[in-house]
Amino acid sequence: VERSDNPITFGVTAGLNIANMSFKQSGLSISPDSRTGFNVGLTVDIPLLESIYVKSGLLYTAKGCKFEDDDYDVEYTPAYLEIPILASYRYDFSDVTQLEFNVGPYLAYGIGGKAKYKDDEYDDEDEEDFFGDDSQTKRFDAGLQIGAGITVGTHYYLGVSYQWGLSNVLSNNHDGHEDGLKIRNNNFMINIF
């Protein structure tokens, strides 16, 4: 296998998030409704071997979830700065078309977002910072990302990926933590650049 002589390349990316959060406690699992968000940022491709790259970058990404019923709605809108560190295999279909497969971890740090509560029965609304001083959530998140994409004309990329959160974003001082409540981010992404 030959070492690649391709240069390190930088780019920009933007995409759609279809985010959700999993809630698990004592063997029970709750899956709320997905929330649509977005991601935007810088990318870097570092060639290692002829078809093997490291794909990374820095993204701003909006995640979260929604709970909706007849009387009470909840929406979480956390935003993160995220660094993916992906092994990327590239296969050239032709001189102008390349397929890639990506897998690896991501690391994220929460920088903002809200927890919004709406009680229709009592016509009451409340909002607090998702990562505020009184919050019960941690800023650090990490997980596994897998995806695939296609590059056309060496400049235009379309890709899809999925992220499984591996970190419990609930802080240790949460009142229900001793009962084993775990909250994790999950996210489906469609990206172009």
Q: What does this entry look like structurally?
A:
This protein is mostly beta strands and 193 residues long. 0% of the residues lie in helices and 67% in strands. The protein has no helices and 13 strands. The chain has strands spanning 9-25, 28-30, 35-47, 52-62, 65-68, 72-76, 79-92, 97-112, 114-119, 124-129, 140-152, 156-165, 182-192. The strands form two sheets. It has an eight-stranded antiparallel beta barrel with strand order 1-3-4-7-8-11-12-13. It has a four-stranded antiparallel beta sheet with strand order 5-6-9-10, with no helix packed on it. β9 (114-119) and β10 form a beta hairpin. The chain starts with 8 loop residues before the first strand and ends with a strand. The mean pLDDT is 91.
Layout: helices, strands, pairs:
Elements: E1 9-25, E2 28-30, E3 35-47, E4 52-62, E5 65-68, E6 72-76, E7 79-92, E8 97-112, E9 114-119, E10 124-129, E11 140-152, E12 156-165, E13 182-192
Antiparallel strand pairs: 1-2, 1-3, 1-13, 3-4, 4-7, 5-6, 6-9, 7-8, 8-11, 9-10, 11-12, 12-13
